[in-house]
Specification:
This protein is mostly helical and 224 residues long. Helix content is 72%, strand content 4%. It has a two-stranded antiparallel ribbon with strand order 1-2. Helix 3 packs antiparallel against helix 7 and helix 6 runs antiparallel to helix 7. The protein is globular and about 60 Å long.
Length: 224
């Protein structure tokens, strides 16, 4: 699906490292550093940077609370916020000049391996959250309202992470491909317009992914 990522080198002869992997490592390191800096410098009288971070957290908390409710939102906020921050950061990395034009630097979410991994992580978390709410209730939802719905409901459970992965990959990969072709045809002008539109689309994809996971989370943890 799409162009196969170029393997730059291998670690221990097992892990193939591509441009998407390198970019992902750099982004994860930057996110970790920023989180540590914010945590270390927390103050009752926050500066501009802390204010900006707190505002972002409040908006995200309100967004998930509207779907899950206050109690569930707080319970699962760390997971949902981690998904959102990683995806939006990975998406926006594709707007960095030169990104995607070299095999050493590519937006992580333009690789299906990364997006399918996000889908699998979401799938495992959803099943674990459902089981924690009660094993009996977890399995009961697969035979409700009728037992013959079991195959369809089980299939639906696997379709959800696949659709999340394909949607995110398709949008980011398509956007990166269009920008690369526009750059080849018209180096000045067209790519700039595409980048302006991408500022909106990158955030939108992160919001949609987080929103859908929140909806699925509400479904597997809702009380009878």
């Amino acid at each position: 699906m799409g162009e196969k990522s170029e393997v730059l080198f291998s670690l221990f002869g097992v892990l193939d490292v591509t441009g998407e992997v390198i970019t992902m490592w750099i982004l994860l390191a930057l996110i970790t550093v920023v989180c540590l800096i914010v945590r270390k410098n927390l103050s009752e009288r926050p500066g501009k940077f802390q204010n900006m971070v707190e505002t972002g957290v409040e908006y995200l908390d309100k967004f998930t609370s509207d779907i899950l409710g206050k109690e569930k939102s707080r319970k699962y906020f760390c997971f949902l916020a981690s998904l959102f921050v990683f995806i939006i950061t990975a998406n926006y990395s594709g707007l960095i000049p030169g990104m995607g034009l070299t095999p050493y630097a590519k937006a992580p979410t333009s690789s299906f391996s990364v997006t399918i991994a996000l889908g699998i992580i979401a799938f495992v978390f959803l099943q674990a959250a459902g089981l924690r709410c009660g094993v009996k209730r977890y399995f009961k939802r697969f035979v409700s309202p009728m037992f013959f719905m079991l195959p369809l409901l089980v299939l639906d459970e696997f379709v959800k992470p696949a659709s999340l992965s394909l949607r995110l990959f398709g949008n980011v990969f398509g956007e990166e491909t269009v920008m690369e072709k526009l750059y080849e045809i018209l180096p000045i002008g067209a790519p700039i317009l595409m980048m302006v539109l991408s500022i909106l689309f990158c955030a939108l994809q992160a919001v949609v992914f987080t929103m859908l996971v929140s909806i699925y989370l509400e479904e597997v943890t809702e009380e009878e």
